[in-house]
Specification:
The structure is a single chain. By secondary structure, the protein is an alpha/beta fold. The protein folds into 3 domains: about 130 residues, Rossmann fold (3-Layer(aba) Sandwich); about 130 residues; about 200 residues, no CATH class. The protein is built from 17 helices and 14 strands. A 6-stranded mixed β-sheet has the order 5-6-4-3-7-8, with helices on both faces. The chain starts with a strand and ends in a 5-residue tail after the last helix.
Length: about 500
Amino acid sequence: MIRDPDGGRVAARVDEPFVATTDSMLTSDRLLAFAAPTAEPWTPRWRRLAILTDLAVIAAVTLATILFGWGDHMPSNRALLGCGLIGATLLVAALPLARAWDGAILGAGPAEFRRLANATIGATVTLALGGLTLLVASVRIWVFLLLPLTGGLMVLGRFVLRKRLHRARRRGHCSVPVLAVGSVEAVEDLIARTRRDPHFGWRVEGACTPTGSGTTEDGATIEDVAVVGDLDSVGAVAQQGGFRVVAVTQAPGWGPGRLQRLAWELESTDADLAVDPGLMEIAGPRLHIAPIDGLPLLRLSKPRFSGSSRVSKYIMDRVVAALILLVAFPLFLLIALAIKIDDAGPVFFRQERVGANGSRFRMVKFRSMAVDAEARLEALKKHNDFAGGTLFKMARDPRITRVGATLRKYSIDELPQLLNVLTGTMSLVGPRPPLPSEVATYADDARRRLLVRPGMTGLWQVSGRSNLTWEESVRLDLRYVENWSMALDLTILWKTFGAVANGRGAY
């Protein structure tokens, strides 16, 4: 036996035989009464749809080239078509090689689109090298236009499929049953996260905890999820319970020996093993694997708030803000007129906010509340609907004007913040700009939000807006700060359109 340095509990060595205790056997009344989840056969169906979508796009582009590029008296056209057929063949071969048809990546994360891009780039480079070697001029239009266009259309097709899959998952379909393993608190957190993010496709249907009990009086459940065993029974439960994923979270006494033994036990099942490394909200470009003599170590690089990527973000902010202001100028005039007609007050509302590194600036918005809104705030604080009390939000705030209600629902009142973006005090994407009074109450973790410029939109905007609790708002902002990248900014900007259009959580 060895001492587990993480949990301070005794754990068995890897080479020791695993002996399940009587309590951990699948003979208890609770395990016998547990209804094993039945996984829906959705993965093969969606995989076939993804394959058919990709092949349909490739066939459509090739067919369009045949219809519009054929000519008996033009040999160059026949060369063009020949290059197209070769390019299409290369692309069809590259998709499975890049694992772009792997069912495990469908519906969540950037891996699906990244593999499509890798397949397209691989086919394009191969065709370009072949054309260069054989001195075929007709290959250029396929290399520089048609194959990249095909790749873009495949991404669009997959995006449409993903939206259909997300709708199905919101209705409780097309998800995989998960066995959560860990302490009661860690399992509870995993259940909450999977329910907040149904698009990922995980559905926790069973749990194993150190004591084999949950949070209810009889210890049978955690957040309505059945507790089906303790840590010693994980392998047996996974083998007989019909789970597709075994998610191991933090738990005392759960050392590397147990984890490796569980991995061996799962080899004879259809279940995948997922392990929480214990690093809070850190992933993406900062997380690396550094193997040392076969020992995989997670290497965490420092967050970078300068460099070429930040310069690119700085330039993009100003260019996009200037273009939107130019295009939206007539809309600004109409909104200003509506506000004046409504109550004859000022069009804009200016308020001091805290920016990057604690600097102060004046944020500007279209006025959506009565002129005396600030004076009436103290009397309304007892009606605060924002969980945690750090911020003040009311679902039916009496200070909001008729025009202001519409402006706030679709976040139109925030458009003048483009002027703050243009002057450099804000960014298009970033943490929510806080008030000085809020910053005065910040703990050390919340102060990390001030390491970057605040944004017009962010993870808080696309994840629930005013429906979030204070803790959730801080967690999302910290996730953005810790994992910032240009790809993350573009993803948030894309999702902002949907969040603004449906108006959920805005008041």
